[in-house]
Specification:
This protein is α/β, with parallel strands linked by helices. It has 8 helices and 14 strands. β1 and β2 form a beta hairpin.
Length: about 325
Amino acid sequence: MVHDLYVQPPMVPEFKDCHYYHTVEIPGHGLVEGLWDLRQGVDDYLGHVPLVGRRVLEIGPASGFLTIEMEKRGAEVVAVEVPDDPGWDFVPYSAPFMGSIYGPRREGMRSLKNSFWFTHAAHQSKAKLWYGDVYNLPEALDRFDVAVMGAVLLHCHSPLRIIEQCAKLAETLVITDMLVPQLVGQPVCRLVPNRDNRKWDTWWEFSPDFFIQFLEVLGFATPTVTTHVQYYLGQPYTFFTVVAGSLSPERANEQLTRRLRASEARWAALEASASWRVVQHLQRWRQVVAPAGSRRAGLWRVALRRARIVPAEGESAGQTPPE
C-alpha cells in the first residue's frame, strides 16, 4: 500500500543528538544556527514557483528547513532521503582511505535525520518522508506538481538520472546549485574529486546551461534561470536556480499517456481487490432478492445509503456527507 512507503515519524530525538545543516527557527528553542542560512532567500532559492495547494517532491531535505518553508507556502511535501546504508553517494577512493570515512559519515547522517524529525515535530509538519534509492523513484509515490532538487545533485554520482526520475513524476522541476562563473555559457559539468583533494562527498560543479540543455532534451520548453545570494557561515555565495515548467507537445502527450496507464493499473488493482469482489457479489445478490422496480429494491437502496455504500440523494459519489 502507498502509505507503507513512508517512514512513520519516530520518537522525537533529543536536541543534543541533532546536527543542523540549515539555520532554522524551532518553536520552543528559538533560532538554531546551521552551516547554511537561506532564510532571506527562500523564494529565490525555490525559483518563485507558486506552491499553494501543490504537491511537492523534495530530494534531500537535510534538516527540513525547506520542507517547513514550502509547507508554510501551502505545499504538501514528500521528501526523499538516502537510507542509513549506504548513507551517502560516496566517491570511490581507495578502501584504506574510505574505511575511515564510512562510519563517521553515517553517524553524521543519522544526526542530520534526527534534526529533520526534531524540526518536523516542533513545527507539527505533515510532510512525508521516503527512504530509498533516488535513482529509482517508485511510481507508487504518485504524481507531483513540483520536484525540488536543492543543492543536492553535486553530491550525486549520476545527477541526470535523478532529473530524469523526477521528470517522470513531476510537472515542474526546480534545480538549485552554486554558480561557478568559469562554467557559465557552456552546457558542461566539471568533476570535483581528484587524486589529491580527497573530496569524497562532492562529485560535480555545474553550469546552468548544462541543466537547461538536458531539460530541453527531456521535452521541457524554455527553462528559466535566476541567480541569488545565500550565506554559508555568514559568507555570501552566488547560486542559480533553473525552473522548467512548460512542456513541449511531445512531452505533454507522453505524460498524458503515462497518466492513463497509471489509471488503468489502479482500476485493475481495484477490480482484483477483495472489496471490489464484495461489491460485485452484493450486486448479484440484489438482482435476485430485490429486482429493479420492486419495493425490496427501494429498501435495499436505503440500506446501502445508510451504510454509505451508495450516495444519498443530492450527494456526489465518492464524497462523504457532512455529519
